[in-house]
């Protein structure tokens, strides 16, 4: 996993295996939080949500979060900015990290064979 974030290109997350590369481009984002998956899944997300996706070994790598704690935290910090701009909350789940992203835009996803 490689995360690149900057003022010009915005946020890009690259996920690579021995035969596949997934590029997720979020563009400019309002907030990013990256935490080790071990501490996150047992303490940050509800057990119900974790079990719902863990049954299938988190088949997807990106999920849109509804009523998420991180998006709400960003909305509170920004005095309601998130509601005005209809911010979206995504979480990317990798083997080692959970990455929360709060943004106005839907990401573009490119999948290629290596």
Our estimate of the beta-strand percent is 35-45%
The oligomerization state is single chain
Structural class: alpha+beta
| Cα shape | globular
List the uncertain runs.
none
- In round numbers, the mean pLDDT is 86
The major sheet is characterized as: 4 strands, antiparallel
The total count of helices amounts to 4
Distance between the termini: 15 Å
The string of secondary-structure elements, in order, is EEEEHHEHHEEE
Strand order of the largest sheet: 1-2-3-8
The proportion of residues forming helix, as a percent range, comes to 10-25%
The strand count comes to 8
Using only CA atoms, what is the Rg? 14 Å
Topology:
Blueprint: E1 2-6, E2 10-16, E3 20-27, E4 31-36, H1 37-43, H2 47-54, E5 62-65, H3 69-77, H4 81-84, E6 88-93, E7 97-103, E8 108-113
Antiparallel strand pairs: 1-2, 2-3, 3-8, 4-7, 5-6, 6-7
């Amino acid at each position: 996993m490689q995360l690149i974030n900057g003022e010009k290109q915005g946020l890009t997350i690259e996920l690579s295996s021995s035969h596949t590369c997934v590029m997720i481009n979020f563009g400019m984002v309002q907030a990013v939080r990256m935490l080790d998956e071990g501490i996150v899944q047992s303490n940050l997300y509800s057990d119900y949500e974790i079990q719902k996706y863990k049954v299938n070994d988190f088949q997807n790598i990106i999920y849109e979060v509804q009523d998420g704690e991180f998006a709400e935290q960003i909305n509170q910090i920004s005095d309601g900015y998130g509601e005005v701009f209809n911010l979206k909350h995504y979480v990317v789940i990798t083997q080692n990290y959970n990455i929360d992203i709060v943004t106005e835009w839907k990401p573009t996803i490119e999948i290629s064979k290596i």
